[in-house]
Amino acid sequence: MGRKVGLQTVELLTKPKLIATYTVVGPKEGEGPLKDNFDEILEDDLCGCKTFESAESKMQLHVVQEVLKKAHLKEQDISYVFAGDLINQLMPSCFMAREVDIPFLGLYGACSTFIEALSLASICLEADIGNHMMAVSSSHFSSSERQFRVPLEMGSQRAPSSQWTVTGAAAVVLAKKGNNVPRVTHITLGKVKDYGITDPNEMGAAMAPAAVDTIKQHFQDTGRKPSDYDIIVSGDLGSVGKQITTELLKEYGYNIGSNYIDCGDEIFDCKSQSTNCGGSGAGCSATVMSSMIYKGMIQKKYKKVLLIATGALLSTISNYQGETIPGIAHAIALEFGGE
């Protein structure tokens, strides 16, 4: 069984295995620098549906079905599916879940949802309450834009500090057993941090303090240092949030710059694709970590990886009422190899 390490970290002694992943992204993401890493690139971000929300749900269902094929499993083999997205009442995730014969737990952690799902799935395996779990996360530019910002039809100019919500979905199957695959060794669950940011176009700045707090706590709890990891990956801080995180961690004595990347900073060519500060969304970390990072571990490019996903916990109501934007960040440590 797992054991508590320090204040916020759990060491998983059984080391749950990530045995299969599947990713699908939209046309814009398919034109970006990481296009060769994704399993599938959509030609139409409506997926043949009438609404963008339905399209996002269809993306989720598709990655669930495809990752089961990769893992050579059936729906009945999965004990629980942990899934989430950015839309009110988790509409895409719930509508995906009604199409499958798997017990469902819906999660909302904003853009931190993917690591939250992986964490809970890993804890369930560690607790020996199932042999296989699934983690799913998605976002869609058009559905998120009209919920959190402005209707697309308005054609509003985007702020220089804004980010582009990734259209994409990813699913991961975790198992108690598996050979030569990434294994979850530690989970560091984060605290909500709020440094007074009110502008929804400043997501990177709003989430960076939470990322700093969780990364710092992970190092303090485990006794590890940045150089112990081949790569440290944050979810969707974008170029601004990434810079803030790097600078703030230096104040605590941690220099992560040499082996640190951010999924939101990697998924687009910000200049040529006009995405300002990069990508964001619950599908951002999910698709990049489940493709480029996962494949990098399978190919033995990375042996030890620290993944951190951050979320801005605002809502349309809180924004209209002038509330500040709380942030959250969760982290998991992966190691490749072994049983």
Automatic annotation (TrEMBL):
GO molecular function, one term: acyltransferase activity
A Pfam family hit: SpoVAD
Superkingdom to which the source organism belongs: Bacteria
Name used for this protein in its record: Stage V sporulation protein AD
Organism of derivation: Clostridium sulfidigenes
